[in-house]
Design goal:
Number of helices: 4
Shape: elongated
Bound molecules: copper (II) ion
CATH class of the largest domain: Mainly Beta
Strand content: 15-25%
CATH architecture of the largest domain: Sandwich
Distance between the termini: 62 Å
Structural class: alpha+beta
Strand order of the largest sheet: 3-2-1-5-8
Number of domains: 2
CATH superfamily of the largest domain: Cupredoxins -  blue copper proteins
């Protein structure tokens, strides 16, 4: 029931934090809404004209404690919400390191032709995501790529480099965190870390043309071993089709 009014979560820690932060702000908002509307109803009932009584309510001008109260109160709530937001923001924006059961980068992806960046972010798996009318392309380290469905290892922090090759698209898998624009000529970063194997679905969140509604996206989390096998399969398939194409061209 509560999920009807709050963000989807449960796939990745950043999505969970977004959900918690949303709920904090939402519940504070609900309390204030009830207070304001309750006061309004109370005033309506209390001040209504009664048969035989005065036709006009008591006229009050100014109430310093009350006015101070709601001014300071509102300011305090705003400041508290700002502080809470900044406390959550770090965990939403910054990718944590991969977990112990994640992809052992040093071993399984040792062939990546990427230099190890300082600061240990080599712990994380980077996948290039390209939005195009009307599908997503994923480029994995080591030359494998896939369309529509992204396959990732569990317990591994996956950092996405998002861009687009035609118009602006928006990457959004609700259970895996917030939206991120995919803009031509520009790289935006986002991340997720999935603990449970499974499939997470999403949808391009930026109106990008006539096929926008069909521009779905899917992330499938598998065990690191299965992920490595997937990469090998993709690479073999890509190589086979390239060779087939070359042979076909030669024959002509
Ligand atoms: Cu799109």
């Amino acid at each position: 029931m509560a999920d009807m009014f709050t963000p989807e979560s449960g796939g990745s820690p950043n999505a969970d934090k977004i959900d918690s932060l949303y709920k904090i702000v939402f519940y504070v908002g609900v309390v204030i809404f009830l207070l304001v509307e309750g006061t309004l109803l109370w005033a309506l009932v209390k001040g209504r004209a009664r048969r035989g009584g005065p036709q006009e309510g008591e006229q009050i001008h100014g109430n310093t404690p009350l006015e101070l109260g709601w001014t300071v109160g509102a300011a305090v709530i705003t400041v508290v919400l700002a502080i809470v937001t900044f406390l959550y923001l770090g965990d939403i924006k910054n990718p944590p390191p991969s977990g112990p059961d994640g992809l052992a980068q040093g071993v399984e992806v040792a062939s990546i032709d990427q230099p190890t960046p300082p600061g240990g972010s080599s712990e994380n798996l980077t996948i290039d995501v390209n939005g195009q009318q009307f599908l997503w392309r994923y480029d994995y380290p080591g030359g494998a790529f896939s369309y529509y469905e992204m396959v990732v290892p569990t317990d591994t922090t996956v950092v996405l480099n998002l861009t687009a090759s035609d118009v602006i698209h928006s990457w959004w898998i609700p259970k895996l965190g917030g939206k991120m624009d995919a803009v031509p000529g520009f790289v935006n970063k986002t991340w997720f870390k999935i603990s449970k194997e499974g499939t997470y679905i999403g949808q391009c969140a930026e109106l990008c043309g006539s096929g926008h509604a069909d521009m779905r996206a899917r992330v499938r989390a598998v065990s690191p071993t299965e992920y490595t096998a997937f990469l090998e399969r993709q690479k073999a398939d890509i190589k086979a089709s390239q060779e087939a194409l070359a042979a076909q061209r030669k024959d002509r």
